[in-house]
Amino acid sequence: MQRIRMSMSYFNQYGWDAEVVSVDPEYLDFPKDELLIESLPAATKIHYVKAFHKKWTSKIGLGSIALRALLFYLLKVNQLLKKQKFDLIYFSTTQFPICILGAYWKKRFNIPYVIDMQDPWHSDYYQDKPKAQQPPKYWFSYRINKYLEPLAMNHVDGLISVSADYINLLKHRYSRIRHIPQAIITFGAFQKDFDTAKKNQHLFKPLLSSDFINIVYIGRGGYDMHKAITPLIRGLKSGLTIDPLKFSRVRLHFIGTSYAAEGQGKQTILPLAKQYGVEDYVVEITDRISYFHTLVTLQNADALFIPGSDDPKYTASKIYPYLSANKITLAIFNSHSPAMDVLKEYGVKHSYHYDDPTLDHKVNLFLNEVSGKEIPEISYNASTVDKYSAKSMTLHQCSLFNQVLAATSN
Predict the structure, then answer these.
(1) How many domains does the chain have?
(2) Where in the sequence is the domain holding 205, given as residue range(s)?
(3) Which residues does the UniProt record annotate as the domain Glycosyltransferase subfamily 4-like N-terminal (predicted)?
(4) Are residues 112 and 206 in the same domain?
(5) Average pLDDT over residues 383-401
(6) What is the structure's pLDDT at 138?
(7) Cβ atoms within 10 A of the Cβ of 88, count?
(8) What CATH number is associated with residue 138?
């Protein structure tokens, strides 16, 4: 949703009128955030669809909002396409099963469709991992994704992705994708959101105490993040040993680390802290928080942390809120992650890969810097900030839409 929401302010400037079809928030597990809707242009047309209620579908083990809403998307969009002429359908969601409807609508209404690959859809990453490290219901999701992905990819007319690796994987699986329009487009930075967050911070429960030096990460956890997180925890352990008075004020916050329903998430970071004996200085909140609550918390942090997965294809597609907060930031990624290039372009001083033999020393320098008397103010490369703005990213999306129309009209 975030890509579409940020782009809605600019689509019209680049020759595209867009209408949105979305699940009614009543049926979502995610924290509700009324400010998201308020941040859309006033003229935005949103068509809400229902979903089968989870209190019934959970009885048969079905929680996925994509599967619960699939029928309702079909009915609503059928209705819209019968009434009105649309040029293109754009799927921008990580709820990928919805995308299989593109092939049906293309066949029935002769309308092309584009899929935005914000994450991998079908992935073998967890196949060789212990069951304890696999996501919930992995057996089911792996098989259904393996079945559904080809239904969408064998007919798609254009692809957008946050990572070249995601598209290259699809090209390997589906040779026809090599011949359709495609573009690597990251999420954009939308400074207006920070202004909105600042004006409305009184609406959100404070998660940080001013008594401490708060280093914050907000996003999913998981065992695949341990290679990136361990150096920071190890650095904190070292600091507490060398100068306990100075480093005892440091708190590492990991917030929203689980996709599970509220109160049901499994901690994956705090057990790591316990291994190093620093659990009293690490806070893990598995429950997710809303988007604007996230921005408020980033603004109130003293420093930020962005860890990457040990999967080399992983890109932290939503790093731009961190960079827009203008806080001193530590980022640790796989050396092959495309996020490293973006961080270097921005001029993030403390961006490292976790195989760096001098990483422990560099993390210690970061911790010493943020635990000092004055934390330095941060500003990033202005031309890079503009390059990765939501406005620029919307222009790239519209360019791909135009390519798709040109290719499918022949």
Answers:
(1) 2
(2) 191-386
(3) 68-184
(4) no
(5) 94
(6) 66
(7) 18
(8) 3.40.50.2000
